[in-house]
Write a structure and sequence with these properties.
Order of helices and strands: HEEEHHEHEHEEEEH
CATH topology: Glutaredoxin
Oligomer: single chain
Strand order of the largest sheet: 5-4-3-8-9
Mean pLDDT: 82
CATH class: Alpha Beta
Shape: globular
CATH superfamily: Glutaredoxin
Length: 208
């Protein structure tokens, strides 16, 4: 069995939820807080993953409709100053390393956790900037919370005084790889290289 370039990529059968401390250390700190100042609940078990339903500009989004494809899932928001753009850029670079046949079997899903500001038009414009295989989705707050809970993603608003934005959204910054059978197979901490992500995609596409 091939060894990956990074030890934090784990098979679902071993998914003890890697270094969630590291994931929280890479929280989006838009409000200027440092990691030790954040009041972050502990995560001690692996997220189950699973299907969820949200909305796109073209209608309903159901994760189960993407059976047969590898899905790269990310939770963030369009006004994120640096963490989201970096993560989506790395994901796009990973997609660009795939051949045409592989690319037909992969989709990136960006779930906005800021439905008050992220309209469908804005989401489409945002994800299209990174890669044509990306889809922007959002929904009602309770629908987003349900989807996030399945994957252990967490987020909360932070007031920004004297800012036109009004608030930022601190959020965990993991990328989740879901296999064609719908199973959560890998969790990548923020900053995982495109090469590692593309290797994991190929690994899953080969049926491993």
């Amino acid at each position: 069995e091939r060894r990956f370039l990074q030890g934090f990529m784990i098979r679902r059968t071993q998914i003890v939820l890697l270094v969630f401390g590291a994931l929280w250390a890479s929280l989006l700190l838009s409000a200027g807080k440092t990691a030790p100042e954040l009041d972050v609940p502990g995560i001690t078990d692996a997220p189950p993953g699973g299907d969820f339903a949200l909305q796109t500009s073209k209608g309903p989004f159901r994760l189960k409709d993407y059976r047969g494809k590898v899905v790269l899932l990310y939770f963030g928001y369009t006004k994120c100053p640096d963490v989201c753009p970096t993560s989506l850029s790395y994901m796009a670079q990973a997609f660009n390393e795939l051949n045409d046949d592989e690319l037909k079997k992969v989709v990136g899903v960006f779930v906005s956790v800021d439905p008050k500001r992220d309209t469908f038009e804005l989401l489409d414009e945002y994800v299209d900037y990174f890669h044509p295989n990306f889809i922007g989705v959002t929904g009602k707050p309770e629908e987003i919370a349900k989807a996030a809970k399945l994957y252990g993603a967490q987020y909360y608003e932070v007031e920004l005084k004297d800012s036109a934005f009004g608030y930022a959204v601190n959020h965990s910054a993991a990328t989740y790889l879901i296999a064609p059978d719908g199973e959560l197979r890998f969790i990548f901490p923020h900053g995982t290289s495109p090469e590692v992500i593309s290797e994991a995609i190929r690994y899953v596409l080969e049926g491993k």
